[in-house]
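Take just one protein record:
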Amino acid sequence: MTPVELSRTVLGAVRRAVDAGELRVDVPERAVVAPPGPGGVGDYATNIALQLARPAGQPPLRVAELLRSHLVHADGITGVEITGPGFLNIRLDQNVGTALVRRILDEGAARYGHSDTLVGQVYVLRVPYEVRAEVVADVLARMVASQGARVEIQQQELQKDDTHETLDVRPVPAPQDPAPLGPDAARWALLHPAPSDRPRITADHLVQREGNSLFRVRYAHARTRAVVRNAADLGFAPEPGAAEPPLLPLLTDYPRILTTAALLTRPDAIAAPARLARHLVAVADAVLDLLPGTLPRGDEKPTAAHRARLALAEAAGTVLAGGLSLLGIDAPDHL
């Protein structure tokens, strides 16, 4: 179950509570779900009860209890706990993780996280003549298109198009021409920092070492491809099984990261490419921690755990490849 699907499940619980007369509120358009913060438990948490408490005229804990009773029986959910002032902490069925890994492997880098939820929508990005703005707009267009919408990029000197959703793309400009870094490193240098931060155009982006976040992401992708090849040489293949945190939540959250680019009416929409880049760094770091236990050692025979870790690593590589492609950056199998 992806965060987008879990969000729909949470909204379904709100709708059932409203239909039952337990809550008198308008069902919101979306419910935010994210990994639990400090003090939280389970796989995901949502503050929907706190959001609805005031319009419902009830204490947040009471709203949380009502929603919990509708969530605990939903498919894919094995437990719901309430923490703090009314956060709902949701534990997912581990079989859901197995299904997610299988889904990623089946759909591949070109389809996992993509959807047709915005088919028919047209968005306009207004961009100044500046290299960073143009690169950010290009990635925003790719991300929005991954959700089925059509994007038009216009120069800001043109008259504003009032017939479609319009976003002005004006990140802090690059201090110098990034072209000498080469296309991949140049794009990463422009995209990885938050749009309000000035990008660093330095040769550090070309160094193959751990401190270079682009290198870590591409290296992690290449390593996932290598372990799959090595496993084939040892005579076994990936087989989705019980997945291990913290990698699984990051893979689950990838579709949500892509959908944030579609919220072009929000002022922070231009930060979506930076969020994607940083999410890929988190995936890369998590999969690099997983890889040492992926293949058997010495005379050890491949087990179900090895096959499951191998499938999880391959799924992570798939997400890294898909994310880098949306950023317009190459994902080599060998590095």
